[in-house]
Amino acid sequence: MAYQEDIALMAHLMRRAGFGATRDELEARVAKGYEATVEELLHPEAQPAVDAYTLLRYQPASLLPGGQPPMGNVHWLYYLVNTQRPLQEKMALFWHHVFATGNSKVDNYDQLLEQIELFREKGLDNYRDLLLDVAKNPTMLFWLDNNQNHGTAVNENWGRELLELFSLGAGNYTEVDVREASRAFTGWTFETKIPRLPYGRFPWKFQYRPEDHDDTEKTFLGHRGRFNGEDIIDIIVQQPACGKFICRHLYNFFVADEPQVPAWPIEPPRDQKAMDMLVGAFRDSKFDMRSVLRVLFNSDAFKEARFKHVKSPAEVVVGTLRFVGGYEIPKPGYGELSMNTAYMGQDLLNPPSVEGWHTGKEWINSGSLMARINFMAEKVGNTSSPGVRGIINRLKTRGALNPEQLVDGCLDLLGPVEVGNETKQQLLSQANEWGQTSWDNGNAQVADQHVGQMLQLIVATREYQFA
Amino acid sequence: MPLTTVARGRVYDWSHAIGRGAATGTGFNYPQTMCLDKNGNVYTANRGNENNFGMRVNHVKVGGPGEEELLAEFFQYGEGDGKSIWPFGVAVCAQRDRVYCSDEWNNTISVFDTSGKFIFKFGSTGSGDGELQRPAGLAVESNGNLIVADSGNNRLQVFSPEGKFLGKCGHAGKGPGEFNQPWGITVDKDGHIFVADWKNHRIQKLSADGKCLMCLGSYGAIQEPEGAYGVTTFGPFVTGESEKAGYPPTDRFNHPTDVAVDSDGDIYVCDWGNHRICIFDSEGGPITTLIGDAHALSRWGQQSVDANPDMMKARRRVKSLEPQWRFCFPTAVDFDPQSDNLIVADSQRNRLQVYKKVRNYTDFQANL
Amino acid sequence: MANQDPCVVVLQLTGGNDYLNSMIPYNNPLYRDNRPAVGISDNNIIHLDANYGIPDYMAPMKKFWDENKLAVLHGVGFKDSPRSHFRAMDIWHTCEPEKVGTEGWLGRVAREFDPHKQNVVQIVSMGPSLPRALVCPGVPVACVAGDLERYGFLPTVQGNERIQVLDRFAKMYSPAIGAGPVMDYLSETAIDSLKGEDIIKVAPQKYSSTVKYPSTPIARKLKGIAQAHIAEIGSRIFYCDHSTFDTHAGQNPAHGNLWSAVSQGVEAFFADLREHNKSDNVIMLLFSEFGRRVHDNGSGTDHGAGGVAFVLGEKVKGGHYGEMPSLRPEHLVQGDLNPNMDFRSVYSTILDKWLHLNPAPIVNGTFEQPAFLN
Q1: Considering only CA atoms, which of B47, B45, B40, B96 is closest in space to residue B74?
Q2: Do B23 and C293 touch (CB under 8 A)?
Q3: CA geometry: angle at A199 spanning A195 and A203, to 5°?
Q4: What is the phi/psi pair of residue C142, to 5°?
Q5: pLDDT tens across C98-143, in order?
């Protein structure tokens, strides 16, 4: 079944490089070809952007949502669910993981959304340029206290996290380097903005204040000079550790779950060969993310990593909503909808700390597992949603289905999903209760229900928690 | 930025701002549409947010500087008579002392007396005659009939004061008399209907029986000048130099939401996505644009600042307050022929800005 | 398990409760001066004593006060209050005013009680989200999104079918040989959750009461907590919240509606526990992330600093603890009451005197303990 294999591979690509795809979309993409699809994903600018004006018409409060959820979450969820540039949003999510910045301190979703917009626009371009933009991003400057990093009184928060969490990883620099990097970023701050009362929020603007900058000589990672922040970034990206750190993040996010970041200095990568390949692409392309991702998605390591990654709550929620459909025009309740990732342990725009979220199996605890299964089950159980109708319509054309055909059909059209023996047995025994599923002779409603319930059981399986 | 705008024989003097951000009571929460009552005061339909906060129609006294006053509020969030999920349109029928309000989630029109007491409602979801799909702007004709911008069905529908379907015009499309999600509508003193054809980026002037007489404007979006301060990602952009840098020519619109006609026949287009009011003569000839000049705080706004010393402190440290003067996604414009007030609902700033069209303006000596 | 284990119920007043209108210094002329628009008029104030009163919409609290079972904690907060809901709430939850904390104080309590997480319903939180106060690695929390009856996997499957479907679900999650550590972990977690579901759903089945709760969201949550507590399922920490106290505009009547719901809910809750003779081992903490601005803004009040917290229960020693910070203009900080009791003091008393735990590692420091518990 070569075609079936193509579908399965394309489904894998779309789950990882995007948020899944319906069977219609998978078939169209298979017709276009795998590599062509990768290229299309890598060039989001060729696809139409999300219609922000439609969002604003219906939800004007999502433009400058201020500090209170859920309007900020509504804004990003609308983009995630409706984008025709899935890799662009996925990369925004990736960088949000890496450059984790949160509302818990920023208290301003406007600024967080502006940061996401930066990731959206530059996330597939050059890492060095992005890092520089992040260093000038007022939201980041505030989050890591660089507005309090003065020539006369150094605050090391940004300087430290820049090295530890944003570029090199622990163990690849000394305390002296932290100090010197911090000094180089003194004077990088933002202008006082018009306060939120009485007319709502205004954004920050980056400001460089030469009189607050320590312009004396610094020694950083073996280099010596009167470095400013940009010089520090240029030195950082040349370090071999930088490519290894960023590529390990990419591998963990797109290929297969790695241990948590703090363990990286101790535990070797899961697949050293794949890592070498990514790091090489990073170096050879002079830090071009698009080039690295092209290598990644076309590699055997990626293609063979099916279901080696526990879905993040964002993947669960966005993937489910895109799959069931019907969210193109905002509607009341979008706010509550947008809080669901938080219920599953991933409060978007509000990560628990600058370390971002712990991924892989750490997404799962008793509360979050219940939240994710119940969310998915509720959505796929709605047999009037466009996505579920799509599955039903395809199954219908196959005539009456025996229990095995029903189970296989649902597993196929929901993924294809691969399940273990015990799971398959349980699904089958459920289907056996129903006997044949047929849409003839006025049985359509019952048949729809069978499909809905089977889909509910499938999304509740262990296997379905993986992407 | 000038407080007095002089162009082609017209003079507009910025008068005052009204309101502040507030989910209830003295202020606004994302007004979508606005209409004048017979005393020159306004009703606005506020959209609120996803915490089910702020939805309402409020009735606010316009007056002169510092005279703003909350007269009534109604149509708050909720199910049932007199409540709304997604308020959008509001229109006053002066003869009958009524206020019509549309709810674009329930697809109904609710009718209130001028103090906000619920009378009845009509409308149901669908695309048939008299059925509604996301009803947006409303306007009342001189005969008392109600015109509804039936935005999801891309048409106008006319109802009797009792809510009986009387007629319709338009369908989806780009040609004259066709619409793409119309937003605000207005009826001039001669009975012409003006429609903000939102997604077609133009204004259409229709005869009373629905024939297209004029299409005004085409698409053109604000651009971000190099180094400018973006008040939002979508503008407005403040450069500190040329105040209209980045704004497109007067007859280029970006999702226009409303239109008004003054007693001289001049036309005011609320160019939402370009954050401005575009002014035309009655033939559609461009005159000038207004981009917002709110130098002085509204009365309620001043109260907020006075109660919050840290806000005052921050305001004193700001390099320029110019970003606060500007319109940010204005949604509605009205002209009051009695006072010559031009009133703009400055939606993202949750305030109104009031200009006066000045007659008999004598210029000062240039060599002062 | 011992039925007399002390339990804590936290009721979070989300959004910033207005201190001055919840504990009114009615003799202080500065109160009137600062509250031209939202002040409570004299005939709507219920006097607690010669200095303080509560608005009539908090009337049920007066009964607890008269029984000497309501402790009022004045001027609660922390230095350099950020006036941001989220930052302030985080500080209350994590006891980390200086940095972004990741562990919640009650999560740490649960870890102390049950380091091997044998009790999967140690913490019951009424609501879909997990408050950061309850977060602690390895500590399970039962987040009950709706009613207790509906708690569990696949709540849309009900009736006879449910037993069968959950049985299949359990089998699908049974450990499989060679499935790998992540699959095994998923199994273990799901089985734990099923265990919790079995325990929790017993509570409403066993419950019967003559107490009628009002039909408000907070009363519904408190009723769920009462059911779980009365059923003695082993829960020690209960969490719920009511919102939004963020009364920037239209504070009257908004503040009244909020407090009517809260105080009537609390009244019903304790009446219920007393009816079942299960109130002795419960205390309730009511707190908010900050108080509100002293001077009103013409319609409401904006974000402030120092606030008021309440602790009530049979074993609580009623009365005032600490003093209301000065309202005099020269003593205000950015127009706000300057907090004079660290919030961790309140926690410390509860931890030390009620839960018998060493407070220092939980609240990150040693703080004076107001003596509202013996």
Answers
A1: B45
A2: no
A3: 45
A4: -90, 105
A5: 888 889 999 999 999 999 888 889 999 998 888 999 999 888 899 9
197-226 in chain C: CB under 8 A from chain A = none
Counting as contact any 3 or more CB pairs under 8 A, the partners of A are B, C
Q: Cα(B75)–Cα(A290) distance, rounded to whole angstroms?
A: 51
Q: Which residues does chain C have within 8 Å of residue B306's beta carbon, measured at their own beta carbons? A: 295, 297
Sign of the alpha-carbon torsion through A159, A163, A165, A171: negative
Taking contacts as CB-CB distances below 8 angstroms, the residues of chain A near C135 are 352
The closest CB to that of B307, out of C83, C244, C295, belongs to C295
pLDDT tens for each residue of C263-272:
999 999 999 9
Best of A111, A370, A424, A464 to disrupt the C interface (most C CBs within 10 Å) is A370
Top residue of A113, A147, A197 to mutate, by most chain B CBs within 10 Å, is A197
Contact pairs from chain B to chain C, CB under 8 Å: 50
Does residue A2 contact residue A9 with C-beta atoms inside 8 Å? Answer: no
| Distance in Å, alpha carbon of A349 to nearest chain C alpha carbon | 12
Confidence (pTM): 0.92
Tell me the residues of chain C between 59 and 118 that have a Cβ less than 8 Å away from chain B.
83
Residue C86 confidence (pLDDT): 81
Q: Output DSSP code: residue A220.
A: E
Whether B22 sits inside 8 A of C83 (CB atoms) is: no
For Cα atoms B228, B234, B236, give the angle at the middle one, nearest 5 degrees. Answer: 50
Q: Does C278 touch chain B (CB under 8 A)?
A: no
Band (pLDDT 50/70/90 cuts) for residue C1 is very low
Q: Answer positive or negative: Cα dihedral of B90, B94, B96, B98.
A: positive
B105 in the Ramachandran plot: left (φ > 0), alpha (ψ -120 to 50) or beta? alpha
B330 residue type, one letter: P
CA separation for the pair A62, A53 (Å, rounded)? 11
Q: Are B341 and B355 in contact (CB under 8 A)?
A: yes
Q: What is the pLDDT of residues C172-204, one digit of tens each?
A: 999 887 888 899 999 999 998 999 999 998 999
Query: How far apart, in whole angstroms, are the C-alpha atoms of residue C323 and residue C289?
Result: 18
Q: Which chains touch B (3 or more CB pairs under 8 A)?
A: A, C
- Rounded to the nearest 5 degrees, what angle is found at the Cα of A462, between the Cα atoms of A461 and A463? 90
Note if the bond before C244 is cis, omega within 30 degrees: yes
Across residues B62-86, what is the average pLDDT? 96
- A71 and B348 within 8 Å at the Cβ level: the answer is no
E runs forming strands in A123-282 = 188-190, 206-208, 218-220, 223-225
User: End-to-end CA distance of chain C, in Å?
Assistant: 24
Is the separation of the CB atoms in A326 and A385 below 8 Å? yes
A413-450 pLDDT, tens per residue? 999 999 999 999 999 999 999 999 999 988 999 999 99
CB contact under 8 A, C335 and B26: no
Rounded to whole angstroms, how far apart are CA atoms A307 and A299?
16
| CA neighbor of A187 nearest in space, from A135, A110, A134 | A135
* Tokens read off for B293: 């000049």
